[in-house]
Amino acid sequence: QVQLVEFGGGSVQAGGSLRLSCEVYGYIGSTYLMGWFRQAPGKEREGVAVIDSDGDTTYTDSVKGRFTLSQDNRKNTLYLRMNTLRPEDTAMYYCAADYRLGLPRLWAGRFSYWGQGTQVTISS
Fold first, then answer.
1. How far apart are CA 22 and CA 70, in angstroms?
2. What residues pair up with 80 in beta bridges, in sequence order?
3. Residue 28: beta bridge partners?
4. Strand extents, DSSP E, 40-76
5. What pairs with residue 96 in β-bridges?
6. % helix, strand, coil for the chain, step of 5
């Protein structure tokens, strides 16, 4: 059984930074895809950034150049560094993991494991 636990959400002003962490408990697989999604009230869950077991990353266009995804395999932890935050980044952020490859990388429906979420609020 895989468990994902997120940390690091909070409230900051526009232009500020936050770092989210996702601790992974359990074994996902020798190949995997992990990442962050977000969901604002009244909106669909949106893929933000993902990384696979080869270290290849994919970002949604709105965060390119501002967000950086990384992983520490020794600590079984995934990080999302978010800089130059905007009010439109406000959402619940979820960590997700999947053992399958070959499916659309930022598609929420392909992920098997989810964390409980951490709230990020950006004020203008």
1. 11
2. 20, 69
3. none
4. 46-52, 57-59, 67-72
5. 35, 114
6. 5, 50, 45
Q: Which amino acid is at 99?
A: Y
CA 92 to chain centre: 10
Q: What is the pLDDT of residues 52-83, one digit of tens each?
A: 999 999 999 999 999 999 999 888 999 999 99
Distance separating the N- and C-terminal Cα atoms of the chain: 40
Share of the chain above pLDDT 90, in %: 92
- Of the pLDDT bands very low, low, confident and very high (cuts 50, 70, 90), residue 30 is confident
3-class SS at 60? coil
- How much is the CA Rg of the chain, to the nearest whole Å? 13
